[in-house]
Amino acid sequence: VAVDIGGTSIKAIALDRSGRVHRRIDVATPLARAGVFDLLGGVIEELQGALAVNGSRLARLGVASPGLVDAGAGVVRFASNLDWRDLELGRRLVERFGVETAVENDARAGALAEHAWAGGAGTGTGPGGRGAGDLAFIPVGTGVSAAFYVGGDLARGASDAAGEFGHLRAVAGGEACTCGNRGCVEVYTSAANILARYRRAGGQLASTPEIVDVIDTDPLARRVWDEAVDALALGLAALVTLLDPSRIVIGGGLSLAGATLLEPLRRRFAQEISWRALPPIHASALGSHSTLVGAALLHRPATDGEAQSLARHLGAQLRDLERATPA
Ligand SMILES: [Zn+2]
User: Fold this and answer.
1) I need a surface site. Which of 45, 166, 167, 318 has the fewest CB within 10 A?
2) Model pLDDT for residues 80-110, shown as the tens digit of each residue
């Protein structure tokens, strides 16, 4: 069973050894944060039941959580959206379900999936193969984050806090962020904040996709969108200047905007750094499913080839399931 605990919804799948998805669950994350762990347990139990119907049993759990995650210890150090502090998520799930359990930060799980999807270390555009697979993954959804491979390894930092990309400052003296600072990338670029800023300025639409649809005809939507793209481009410029990744993959719900996002983003990004060749920026082929696929990959297949085929197989099934039952 693989689980993606998001700020908006908990998504989970039961899959078998061949990678076939038997059941998918998508439930709203409770507003009463104390209920999140209980709901998580209930979701896993339901999927365990779905496996039992097919004559299978739960063998492994992979869970992606927002916040600072010590993957080695299976502990969520701090997840502000869920009010979790030093939660021994791995140990508690092992106690309850009695199976091997892996826990990872959601953005890093997503990067793991993107890396696997592309074939792992075998890909990349660095000269002579250098920097091969050093991708940077930027999921833009309810929040904005980043995870990146440096030298072929997923970077974690000294306190598991590498990749807090959403809290890079994009606008000096800008609007207030939940982190206590001002002008963070996330304030302008997250799907939730695009909607909130549009509505605060008098806009009437009810969702970010609706805003994306009208940017050519609604000046307010255009302004909010341009500010979102600007902040993201500034963040990417800082990231590329420091890390020099071979490519940038934009994921999460906002990546579904496709060329509407990528074309102005590439233009702004190129204006920010004119002195060097820039890595390509593309939208995730896994759409908003990267983290869930990554959660399934936490119990790492033996080879890059196996990881790649599992990532692609899961991605295709999740896309089909979404088409069959649109959100
Ligand atoms: Zn911030």
Assistant:
1) 45
2) 878 899 999 999 999 999 999 999 999 999 9
CA 130 from centroid of its chain's CA atoms: 26
| Closest-CA residue to 288 (of 140, 163, 109, 105) | 140
- Residue labelled with tokens 């969108």: 225
> From CA 106, how far away is CA 66, in angstroms rounded?
5
**Rounded distance from Cα 169 to ligand 1 centre (Å):** 8
pLDDT digits (tens, 9 = 90+) for 282-315: 999 999 999 999 999 999 888 889 999 999 999 9
Span from the CA of 118 to the centroid of ligand 1 (angstroms): 31
The pTM of the full predicted model, rounded to 2 decimals, is 0.93
SS (H, E, C) 190-235: CHHHHHHHHHHCCCCCCCHHHHHHCCCCCHHHHHHHHHHHHHHHHH
142, 143, 173, 180, 194 from 176: Cα distances, Å: 16, 14, 9, 7, 14
